Amino acid sequence: MTVTITHEGAIAVVTVDNPPVNALSQALRQALAEAVSAIDADASASAAVLICAGRTFIAGADVSEFGKPPLPPHLPDVVAGIEGAGKPWVAAIHGSALGGGLEVALGCAYRVAASANLGLPEVKLGLIPGAGGTVRLPRLIGASAAVDLVTGGGSIDARKAAALGLVDTVVEGDLASAAIAFARKIADKPRPQPISERNVPAVEDGFWEHAEKAVAARAKREIAPLRALACVRRACEADFAAAMAFERETFLDLRGSGQAAALRHVFFAERAAPRPPELAGVVPRAIRSAAVVGGGTMGAGIAAALRDAGLPVVLVERDEAAVERGLANVSQIFEGSAKRGRISPAVAAERMAGVVGTDDYGLLADTDLVIEAVFEDLAVKRAVFAKLSEVCRPDAVLATNTSYLDPDEIGEGLAQPERFLGLHFFSPAHVMKLLEIVPTGTTAPEVLAAGFALARLLGKIPVRAGICDGFIGNRILKITRAQAERLLLSGATPAAVDAAMRVFGLPMGPFEAQDLGGLDIAAFQRKAARERGETPFAPIADRLCAMERFGQKSNGGWYDYRPGERTPQPSDVVEAVVGEEAAGRPQKTWDEASIVDAIVLPMVNEATLILDEGVAVRAADIDLVKIHGYGFPRWRGGPMHYAQARGLADVVAVLDRLAASGLAAPPCAALRRAAEDGGFTLLDR
Ligand code: NAI
């Protein structure tokens, strides 16, 4: 039974019990509709309380019904049924009232809430609320607050909701008894006007134009937020029935959109990521304390992330001066968070107080997890692990944050090698959501599981990656950069390439990104690759680095920068270098779409190789890497979903054409095969 009705005197208590989150499945919708009729028919009941069992109110739609044809009763009808019931309903909210859950609450005559968050997150899935949320909310809390909630997809707590008039009262203590007492009080009072019958709020002149600009700027190329805004506007300008019809039409249109499909894919990919099938039933090694060796850019960020999650942290550096610098790096992160209002100064101080800086490895004798983030140098890293082998408990988990070195080589000679793995964070490590988890040939399952458990603790998206040069993300990045140079050698400019990729949806193009991060790190990688006998392709970047044009930090890279400024200016120096390197090569005119193809489709090709080699376990994981580590637009679903949605046959055909002109590698056999077989399996679920 998903819904039971009990009686507390004249109050009917409707309890929803649909674990884990009381999602609005077809069965629940049906049961709610029946509860309305049953209570209407019950002469002894004067009011109803709608309350949920478990940890939350109705938290939203049933994800297992996503992308499937909707089954009756439809939610707008259920909500209308509650609103039109013969007895007043009181929603008793705890946990989350999100999406359809909040819409059900809006159908009730009253809302009381304990500790809870309320919101309409549909835009995050490329949708809008489809059961009157965009229509009732402005009638209840005004246009401005409704626009914020509906177009932003964020949630608010019970107190804020009360201040806005979204809930009638906030209760402390037992929610059920408070809600029943509330229902008794209102049972014989005149009922408030149903929200659907209330007047629409007035707005100031220019309100909608202003809102449209603000929402468009935030949404960039996502369509749902602007469509949501149009619905709220219609709700404020039309009668209830017309506004509901407009909302329905918009909802159905968006449900079939490519963006909604992409965002749904990412939603499921993120849900699957923390649970790799190979670790089913494996108990992770417990991590209650952590240490970071190396307090530079990455070490400080990792230490901050560990503290943010509540772990005590020891930060180990080479000598006293380096310890001071490392601690200052961490402190700067917390101060920055406090300045931005993310945490209070007191919390910042408390987090910092939990970081112990030292140059004495002896302090690590009882630490559960040690993450190494020292220079990218095999000998230096091995020396660190030799010391860790001596001082740490034999069951302590030891991890390297290396970007490009082979963890198997770093871990050679380690005592108890089964406790060692790669944990590849992204910069800034306290902000970026991605964590590549890299088992070596000897990593024990419970140690790999500890990596995933750590990701959960830190609020990160874990992706299992196999060992290869650059793991998943940086291996694809290398291809992107090579493609970007190929474009320059055949007639495109850095500004045109960057602009096209921004239009595609990336926050930055490949050249701007290199100038920001610095060209020296990749140059160092290429030097190492040449020493291994490889021939990395970066003719222009090599020459820029030889001129010490490392990017913004040296006032010039792919662009020029005026001292103290970050606005890229086209560079005559770069143009001259490109001209020399391009001499004798065929030139062509590049439009935006062909630039994007020449960058993104080779990315897909490399990703397919990565999948084929087993470096990535699922195609969807590669999408998560690109979205959470490299700014690939979420609403495009990541490169694999993008390619699949576009059609792999077309992807192969374009790659074949690029390859014929020497502008990309030909599509790999696995990609051709996938195109013939009808596509990748993005995610098994
Ligand atoms: P960094 O140069 O900013 O910091 C390295 C720190 O390690 C320095 O503070 C140095 O004093 C310390 N150190 C060196 N030898 C040490 C030793 N024996 N014991 C204790 N501390 C020692 O370098 P960064 O950028 O933080 O990189 C660290 C590691 O993280 C490298 O392996 C790098 O490849 C990797 N990484 C870097 C990313 C980035 O974007 N910078 C991203 C992901 C990984």
Give me some keywords for this one.
685 residues, alpha/beta, 2-enoyl-CoA Hydratase, Chain A, domain 1, Rossmann fold, N-(1-d-carboxylethyl)-l-norvaline Dehydrogenase, domain 2, 3 domains, eight-stranded mixed β-sheet, seven-stranded mixed β-sheet, 28 helices, 12% strand, globular, binds 1,4-dihydronicotinamide adenine dinucleotide
Note down, in words, how this protein is organized.
Residues 470-561 form the 3-hydroxyacyl-CoA dehydrogenase C-terminal domain. This is 3-hydroxyacyl-CoA dehydrogenase. It catalyses: a (3S)-3-hydroxyacyl-CoA + NAD(+) = a 3-oxoacyl-CoA + NADH + H(+). The chain is of the alpha/beta class. It folds into three domains: 3-255, 2-enoyl-CoA Hydratase, Chain A, domain 1 (Alpha-Beta Complex); 287-464, NAD(P)-binding Rossmann-like Domain (Rossmann fold), CATH 3.40.50; 473-683, N-(1-d-carboxylethyl)-l-norvaline Dehydrogenase, domain 2, CATH 1.10.1040. An eight-stranded mixed beta sheet has the order 10-9-8-11-12-13-14-15, with helices on both faces. Strands 1, 2, 3, 4, 5, 6 and 7 form a seven-stranded mixed beta sheet that branches. Helix 5 (143-152) packs antiparallel against helix 9 (224-237) and helix 9 runs antiparallel to helix 10. The protein is globular and about 85 Å long. The structure holds 1,4-dihydronicotinamide adenine dinucleotide (NAI). 1,4-dihydronicotinamide adenine dinucleotide binds next to helix 12, helix 13 and helix 15.
Short structural description:
The chain has 28 helices and 15 strands.
